[in-house]
Amino acid sequence: MMKRTIPMLLAMAAGIVMILAYFFPPLTPLQDKTTVWFNILAAVAFILGGGNLLKVHLKKVSDRREGWAYSMITLAAFVGVLAIGLFKIGVNPLDEFPDQRMAGDFRAEGSGFWYVYEYVFAPLTATIFSMLAFYVASAAFRAFRAKNLEAILLLGTAFVILLGRTAAGVFLTDFLPEEGMLANFRLENLTVWIMNNPVTAGNRAIMIGIALGTASVSLKILLGVDRSYLGGGD
Amino acid sequence: MYEFLRDLDRRVIFSLMALAVAVPILLQITPPEKATPIVRDAFETIEALEEGDRVYMAFDFDPASAGELQPMATAFVRHACEKKLKIYFTALWPVGPQFIKNAERDVISRDFPEMVYGEDYVDLGFKTGNEGVIKLVANDLRTQYPQDARGTPIDDIPMMAGVASIRDFDVIMNVSAGYPGTKEWVQYAVASAPDDIKLVAGCTGVQAPLLYPYYPQQMSGLLAAIKGAAEYESLVLGKYGRENEPGMYQEGLRRMAPQLSGHILMVGLIFVGNLVYFMARKRGEA
To answer: Which one of A166, A172, A186, A210 makes the best mutation probe of the B interface by having the most chain B beta carbons within 10 Å?
Structure first.
């Protein structure tokens, strides 16, 4: 009862308030209150997430499961950065309170947290993301084949977009006039047309499908038919 | 030749890509950019604002996407400063506040030192809750932000006077790398008052196709990927100058050259890959 029914009733009540407030504006303050609760829960979820990360990785280290050394690194990074931020290590005091180090901004330039962010976190994440270019290039060479009509259409579109999104598009079709019907075939204009028409049309269809699916799942949750979000598997 | 291409080592491809990106950077090539209508509309939306109008600047991205998004964030901030708009910085991503700090340090303190914190710009900081935050600020911003990122109560911040909800802003300028981001700003902020709220956004290349359907009704303009940033930079440079000052105001433009060579290499690789495929088919190997 406490673990399933009450959370389910809370979720149903919150959902119904959000829907009703959309149609009955006097309920807007209640809707705002519900949103505040949601935001508080989201903040608490950060603590739960941190606790869960500790639990999972400590267990892995303690069991000496495969890859436990990576878990050690994760734990060290988590605890280290948390301590640097929480205890404001290396933070410069504010001008107004020169003898109160804890009053300083933990993100300000020169603080420990700033160093970690600027010289560890930012370069690492940027590096990981940059590697995508190399893998995409390799995959394009090995897998992007004109095997059938659909693949040929995809290839043609890819060529137009790849070239049209750079100065190469302008250079290659510079012989076409800038005005009139032929201007539509300039690569930069063709790119805009593809993005504005086939891509937008396809995405609109997908978005409408997602919206219908979301409405259907939401109704199932509101009516208590779908309880999978409570955990436990039903 | 066929065997060489068929068995081409991936390290060769990696090296070619590294060269394609590195050479234009080292040679400092900057190809010209012509703004597309969707970027020009974003620019014109900001241009149409008057001095002292309020812009809500939401930085919803992280360092992984900074390569694409930092130039447009810088261009947005610079444009707002040049127009003497009041800027309200926020972030829905935990690392977003660092980009606000960067904007404050690199653009405002460096080139617009006359701007006063609390009167011309304010950092409202990061809030957790994703679309929940947007939903709330759409009706009641003061409940969501009782104080700024420095801990000052918003009642004590001069530029917060008269600000009750997102409707009190003239434009939302969002730089987004995913969820929560531009899509949520459209769905929860713009949709709550489509006639009152204007949104211009900058996003990553992979996000752009998902956002095109919102233009021009729910979104006044969109900067898609580094090309969008370069086009916007060219418009801001054209209007406000500083062309001779290399650096952050031309980062997007500078990054178009590696993008150009990278894309040409990709086209070449796809072409050669298909050549190998058809030769293999002809030989009965595929």
So the answer is: A166
How many folded domains does chain A comprise?
3
pLDDT tens per residue across span A9-37: 888 999 999 889 888 889 988 988 998 89
> How far are the Cα atoms of A38, A185, A201, B118, B230 from residue A197, in angstroms, in the given order?
38, 15, 6, 44, 23
Question: pLDDT averaged over chain A?
Answer: 89
Tell me, yes or no, whether A222 lies in a domain.
yes
Residue B244 has pLDDT above 70, yes or no: no
What is the Cα–Cα distance from A182 to A91, expressed in whole angstroms?
62
Are B34 and A141 within 8 A, CB to CB?
no
Give the closest-approach CA distance of A38 to chain B in angstroms. 7
CATH architecture for segment(s) B37-243: 3-Layer(aba) Sandwich (3.40)
Last residue of a domain, one of A20, A52, A77: A77
In a domain, A201, yes or no: yes
pTM of the model: 0.89
pLDDT tens digits, one per residue of A135-169 = 999 998 988 888 899 999 999 999 999 998 888 88
Q: Do B267 and A163 touch (CB under 8 A)?
A: yes
